[in-house]
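Service request form, structural biology core

Requester: graduate student, group of Dr. S.
Request type: structure prediction, single chain
Budget code: on file
Notes: please return the result as structure tokens.

Sequence provided:
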Amino acid sequence: MVATYIQQSIEQLKTNIFMHVRHRTLIQYTGSPLLDENQLFYLLLPFLNGEKWDEQIQESAITVGIVHASLSEHDKISETNATSKEQQLTVLSGDYYSGRYYEILAHSGNITLIRQLSEGIVTRCEHQIKLYESTQYTINEWYQITSGIQTELIKRFYQVYQFEQYSSFMHTALLLLQLRKELRNHQNDNPSSLFLKMKESVSGQGNSIVSIIQSEIDSLNNLLNEYLQSSSYLKDDLKLYIKQQVAFNDKLTRER
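Core staff response, request fulfilled:
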């Protein structure tokens, strides 16, 4: 297996997701759905590692991708100018994607998956809501919230199909990659609401938020390397891809 095959598999999953939610008017005004390739990789990780992967599992992975797209559309809604045509259509696109994944789930008849994804959506949204609360959370709690937003639905997918052995890689890598993204956005003078909340949680402490997050990234990187070194079942090509994925994102951050 080479990186080209892995990337082709991710692109194919992305194409399959687009095919299920394509709508000309929505694409015209809101663009294609937002899909995180890092999340798609971890959705496919069991498949890429040679686990049993039938049509039902593939359809379930597509459904999880559509759920992510739906939630991402709702996350794009601006608090200002929320009545513009583009903003209204962004809301509609999120609702449209929601309808599509419920339709797929209904046709599948997979009650276990329906239950797990429904619970996962609730949990993921509860994490997202914390960004708008006045409650003060610690920096470690913000890490947990960030991880929940990134990983909850994939975790549920793993649970349904007994792929939990991949959870350590998935949780550690996706949190690490998201924290790197938060630093890049900050460096580009475009900090997210999450970054500002994390910054607020450490105000008054000696270290800057950048150094605090970088320290967490370093710890996660060390932990991920430990998982990769000790794993006896993950293919070497996949271990290398994960390392390269992390290194590439690290390079993007340090070049800014």
